[in-house]
Specification:
This is Porin O/P phosphate-selective. The chain has 412 residues and is mainly beta. The protein contains three helices and 22 strands. It has a single domain, classed as Porin (Beta Barrel), CATH 2.40.160. Helices cover 9% and strands 56% of the residues. Strand 3 and strand 4 form a beta hairpin. The longest helix is centred in the N-terminal third of the chain and has 24 residues.
Amino acid sequence: MSFIVCQKRKRVLGRYWSGVLFAGVSFFSACQAVGSTVPTIVLGDVVIKPYATDQLDIGGFPQSTVPVDGVGVRAARLRNGARITIHKQFEIGAIWDFGPVPKGPMRLFEGQVSYTGIKHFVLTAGIFKPSFGLESMQAQGDTVFIERSSISTITRNLAAGIARQAVQIEAHGKHYHIAIAGTAGTAGPDHDGNQRAMVFRLVGVPVSTHDLLVHVGFSGEWVFKAAQSPGQAPAVDFSDFPELNVGLTGKFLNTGKIPLKDAGAFGLEAAVAWKKLLLAGEAYEIEANKRIETGVQHLHFSGWYAQASYTLLGTPRKWKSRTAAFSSPTCQKNRTFLCDGAGVVEAAARFSEADLRSGAVNGGRQQAWSAALTWWPVDILRVTLQYENGKIQEVNNTERFQAVLSMMQIKF
């Protein structure tokens, strides 16, 4: 790919190869498992399951009117650790994120304890991802595209999302998922632990047959106290990369820091799974009260996405009540080195929009088309090729871009 930009390699070479080493260790462990389930460690009533989500992204922008300085090779996520079950009643997650490489700070990705001793109920406390939104609740390795839609990322980063300090109670079953959480800031660098918010999610499955499943839901979050840096007023920024990131130094969508009294987001989600076809979409409204000299100014942002995916080879995605989201496609038969002889293949398309313009705030309006083809030669190894065509509208300017991104991922 001649368009790939690989600037500043010398400066990040050490961290890059450290990331590759972690990914290589994970891949070696995966191969030892003969391309199937990674072995667990059982010590009486204690079960230890190794965890890894290691990704290597390669790509760039063959055509763009937007500045896209950055690198073209990035170890986007290097999350490794373990999940432990004790007496079938307690679950402990201990996962460290060694990436992204380059430029990304390492941090604790998950450090939580869950009590599952009461049927259909789960109580969780620590650092984890509270239940919010359909696409947000898909594990990173299970998402249809390499990155989530911008509106999903922007809303979940307000009070939910990964590495969030929180306490949550949830109830789930074959036809429902209900969760409510009290959240603070995120762990690690750029820590905003003084934030206070509530997050909830209600999901129902009114239809569930062998060939057809219908999912509907509603999520909400409200920040009562925004994060506050020393000597500064409470503030939040709404921003995202263009649904892919190969080391970009700037975000296309960006409101900048907004001094806030409070803010929240509310959204509807829906999905229909019919045989090998999965249709899904979400729509969000963001409400924010900005502090100004004369009082408070109300701001309103919005966005939505719709996507379709089809499992060409393999067993299609399955709904999971614990997360109220869909898993990756799997093999139809007993796993082999090439999973049914050819592997699992999925094709997908998506359109998304995010509008961060309100009042005097002009964070831009992004519209993007994406297409992806994904192959799983074995259940723990994923290869994705993705194309994106989008535009950013500002006050007096419209900028367009095209991008191509490939990803290799090891997940177990």
